[in-house]
Each structure stands twice: as structure tokens, then as C-alpha cells.
Amino acid sequence: MNKAELVSAIAKRADVPSATVDAVLAGLQEELVEAITRGEKVAVSGLITVERTQRSARTGRNPQTGESIDIPAANAVKVTAGSNLKKAASSVPV
């Protein structure tokens, strides 16, 4: 499902205009980006948790040449599924 399909599905389910849903999703995106920039954790109970994490510097290896390379420290984003998403995923047969 892409963004347009998501907007359409939410608009239909909530019985609101697609433009309103699109504006809400845009606002959500902006708030998530700003929160991550500030180092805050964003948790929507039962759905998702998003937080900034730090990866320390380490030594890696080029798989083609076997040469060692230094990988610098970096910030990353960690996204964790909430209980409702985990339950939905586990209910689908493999």
C-alpha cells in the first residue's frame, strides 16, 4: 500500500475528505522528523514507537575484496511495532 492508497482508505473509513487525511499525514511526518531531530521518542500506544539511536564506530569488511574499512559512528532511526501490529502479523498464517 502506498501513500495515496493509504490516504484513500483512511478517508473512506473515517468518512472525511482525502485532502484532510493527506494534511494529517503530512503533519504527522513533520512532527516525527522534528521529534527525532530533538532526540525525542515518539510512541503511539499499541501501534508504533519511533526513536533515534546511536551506532558506534566499528570496523567492517568489504565483501568483494575482504579489505577492512572503518565505519564512522552515526545516528539511526529505530522503529518498533506495537502490540496491535504484532498481534495482526502473528494472526496471519505462514
TrEMBL record:
GO terms for molecular function: DNA binding; structural constituent of chromatin. It comes from the Bacteria. GO terms for biological process: chromosome condensation. Keywords: DNA condensation, DNA-binding. The keyword Nucleotidyltransferase does not apply. One of its GO terms (cellular component) is cytosol. Belongs to the bacterial histone-like protein family. This is Integration host factor. It comes from Geodermatophilus normandii.
